[in-house]
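Problem: given the chain below (216 residues), write out its structure.
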Amino acid sequence: MRRVPLAFSTAIAALFATAAFAQAPVALVEDVRSKTAGVEFMDYVTAGKHIQLRGQDTLVLGYFTSCLSEAITGGAVTVGTTQSDVQGGKVKRTKVVCDGNIALTESQAKQSAGTSFRHDATVRLHGLSPFVIAPGGAALLITRVDVPGEFHVATVPVKPGAHQSHFDFAAEKKALTPGGIYRASIGARQIDFRVALDAKPGRGPIISRLLRFAPR
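Solution.
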């Protein structure tokens, strides 16, 4: 059996690692008002994505790892890993409080948080009203697990033509308890999370209060 040269195998491994990294979502479309952008509200975007905006078109991106919220008007936008490159347009960047673990897929969140409750719940929300992305029509249950008696139920609206939809607790004027530890469940699928003690009420940046269930 022939041996693969170490340098060659290392290069191949690096290539696959780079490709996998490039495909990981780096930001979330929190708002978009454009017919040319090619992205929609709540789309995940990867580094290298090009978005074209006309003069008065607007786009809001929330970056997971840098916790930057970008309000962009017009121009050619190239999504980066921590912020966008904007040519011919205007961008206003605001640092928000967020947790990089919101970028986890549901399976990764399960692996990190465990199927049984742990007090070091991986995901931390910095808003009192979660913004939940989940399959349309799903029955959602959020239960407080460190102090019994508090729970919240909702049905995720169906979005025609889409596998995923969302439920915004802020829009329903529902809020969790600062410092509380919770479990969000859709059937047997669950994500454990903690609400920060200084979590803000109301419609704060989505990346500060995002819970994401993977599509079925």
